[in-house]
Amino acid sequence: MKSETLFNIENNLFTVAMLLYFVSMILFFVFFVLKNLKVTKLGNGTLITGFILHTVVMLIRGINAGRLPLTNQYEFASAFAWGLCFVSIIFIYKYKFQALATFSVPVIFLMIGYAAMQSKEVHELMPSLRSNWLGFHVSTAIIAYGAFGVSFAISIMYLLRTRSVANAFFEQHVPSGEKLDIISYRAVSLGVLFLSFCMISGAIWAENAWGSYWSWDPKETWSLVTWFIYFIYLHLRLRSGWKEKRAAWFSIIGFVCVIFTYIGVNTLLPGVHSYA
Amino acid sequence: MNGFKKFYKFISSMKLALVLLGLLIIGCVIGSVIPQGQIMKLYQQQYGDRTAGLIMALSLDDVFHSWWFVAFTVILCLNLFTCSILRTPALIKRWKSFGDLPDENSISNNVSVESSPPYIGRLSKDPEAFLKSLGFSRQSGTKQSGTKQSETKQTETKQSYIVGVRHKAGLLGPLITHIGVLLLILGFSFGQMTKVEYTVYGLPGDAKQIGDTDYILQIDDFNIGLRADDTVEQYTSDITVRNAATGAKESASVSVNAPASLFGMKFFQNSTGWAADMHILENGELLQEEAVEAGNYVTVSDKTDLQIGFMAFYPDYHYDREKGPLTLSSKLNNPAYLYIVYFQGSVLGMNTLMEGEELTIDEYTVTFDNPRNYTLIQIKKDSFTYFVLLGGVVLLLGLFLSLYVQPEKIWLKQEGDGYLVFGSGGKSGILFADRVKAKLKGNNYEK
Question: What residues have CB less than 8 Å from B21, skipping those under 6 apart?
């Protein structure tokens, strides 16, 4: 009974959080397209409230399941959206860059929408997932994916900025192209570092669970592909001056690869990671 | 010599590294899309004869062990190694000179310098406190201009400078990252070449030799911990390993995520499956009785061209019209055994046999009973695992230094009773200049 009550509370709060993300998305859209500055505070408040509720949803699920809520498609998709929101908020405040939300909140909304389509049933952990490495491995993946998502949003913004005729609104609310480029690079740096943590902790865990730290499982392989792509990005950027427009396109390709590693691999290339 | 230099330049170039990474990406994509390790027939069924032939010819059925994938990896290692060697002297030079003043062009007396990137702003007072507030440490010996410059430059510029640096360690990041990647690839490759792996499956009470070693693995017990909802919580095997030559024994409990180390080998709880006793009677007399794991065959002892395979076990058997035979739970509510009979290499029949039912083949009668779980233990000895782990740690350290410890430098040039502030923030670029500007404004340092 307690479990069912908690499940219902979690479900209802999840719907409210999703709605708040949606409202926030609309408000930031109004801010950006109609150049209405009044809605930014409201949009920001809605986003933060949505994020807090989303955090509560994950806490309730964790309490109800008696474990970290990071083990199936629904839980990981929800955590992915949470990570994206978390990194977005950090970047918005660190770089005083409110307009970022206009491009990152739609990605958050899409991801939480994907989570909503998954089965929300609470399952017990299979033996291979019963490990202390679970929390570290998955949470580093969430931050990495979130950071790549933010870099994707900034890159889209960069490309729009370069194509738009410079106007006062852009000059005032969107950082210069040079700054956008560096902030996107910062997001990629965060993502690469956390993806590396994720892959190395996953290898240590796999060694303990299956006696093989690397087995070319599709998820492992595609994580490596993502890692390679971002490494090419970093090298081209630092050594060959591939900055701004080309770097923005590279960052977009990298995030497409991240999405495929998460959704595509789970649905098209089953392996030992098929549960998440 | 010229040819060698050219080759060395090519092999250590970043262009080559990026091309190799691109080729490895293509290999990884192919290896994850095409099913690996299948037989030709399966590829022919799935892709047609021509594509299947291409798959086999290019080793696309085993991409990650193919000659070309291994070759790209080896060349990448060479590239990383030579690139690291090539760049180390320049890195040492940069490390040593990091506190020096930049060239004179960057700190020219020309007023137009105030619009160029190294120029950040003007400082009115207290340079030491200003540097400290930004987390910079002042370099010793740089107060007077050109103290680390040539004599000529000393005479050319007679103004005072103060240089502050921070995060110098970040300069080492790329080199440490490369070393980490090299350690990872080398550890993995040597591990693949030298590791020894065995699998032993058995029922409690079984004692089996571990591969070609002197060691005997005895399965003392095997338990499947079930939760109230019938889901598996944990698989645990109690094992004893005995050295047949010396008689030395070591025992341990092994479960998923909790391997054990015995006699320098690692034992993993890998898997489980069903086993059962197969009884073969000839004209009503017991001929043979064997414990058989699902997937295995038994050859009838006095008729060797007759084989009976125990293909699968269904503890709670149910036949679904669409899905075929399946089990409703893992409880032994309605046990059924899927068997196959081969005679002279051809399939004679295949069906399910319920507990207590008999299969009759001429004078032979076959029955199954006593279903139970067997355990599959994986045994591994890989001395390079720790080498790989070290590579991982070094790689993480290198990445952290490369991406998060940005070497930064500020130099203050005395002008009248204040200072001109110049700076270099490496990869942080304009964000670094913004940070310094904000500090100049925020603390009323600005002139």
Answer: A228, A231, A232, B76
Say yes or no for a CB contact (<8 Å) between B231 and A123. yes
Give a yes or no: residue A37 inside a domain.
no
Q: Closest-CA residue in chain A for B395?
A: A196
CB contact under 8 A, A183 and B431: yes
Instruction: Count how many domains chain B has.
Output: 3
Within a domain: residue A52?
A: no
Q: Which residue has the higher pLDDT, B61 or A268?
A: B61
Report how many domains make up chain A: 1
Identify whether B293 is part of a domain.
yes
User: Residue B153 pLDDT > 60, yes or no?
Assistant: no
Residues A200-245: pLDDT tens digits? 999 999 998 888 899 899 999 999 999 999 999 999 988 777 888 8
Q: What angle is formed at CA B244 by the lines to CA B238 and CA B248, rounded to 5 degrees?
A: 65
Confidence at residue B426, expressed as pLDDT on a 0 to 100 scale: 78
Residue B181 lies in a domain: no
CB-CB under 8 Å, A185 with B33 = no
Domain that holds residue B136: 98-104+116-167+406-442
The residue whose two tokens read 């969430």 is A142
Q: Which percentage of chain B shows pLDDT scores above 70?
A: 91
B22 touches chain A (CB under 8 A): yes
Contact A208 B64 (CB under 8 A): no
CB pair distance less than 8 Å for A176 and B430: yes
**How do residues A142-167 score in pLDDT, each as one tens digit?**
999 999 999 999 999 999 887 766 67
Residues 250-269 of B with CB under 8 A from A: 255-259, 266, 268
Give yes or no: residues B82 and B135 share one domain: no
At B331 the three-state DSSP class reads coil
pLDDT at B215: 96
Nearest CA in chain B to A214: B188
Shared domain for B91 and B27, answered yes or no, is yes
B414 and B343 in one domain? no
Whether residues B361 and B283 fall in one domain: yes
Minimum CA–CA partner of B185 in chain A: A214
Which three-class secondary structure string do you get for B56-95?
A: HHCCHHHHHHCHHHHHHHHHHHHHHHHHHHHHHHHHHHHH
Q: Does B21 touch chain A (CB under 8 A)?
A: yes
Tell me how many degrees the CA angle B370-B372-B373 measures, rounded to the nearest 5.
165
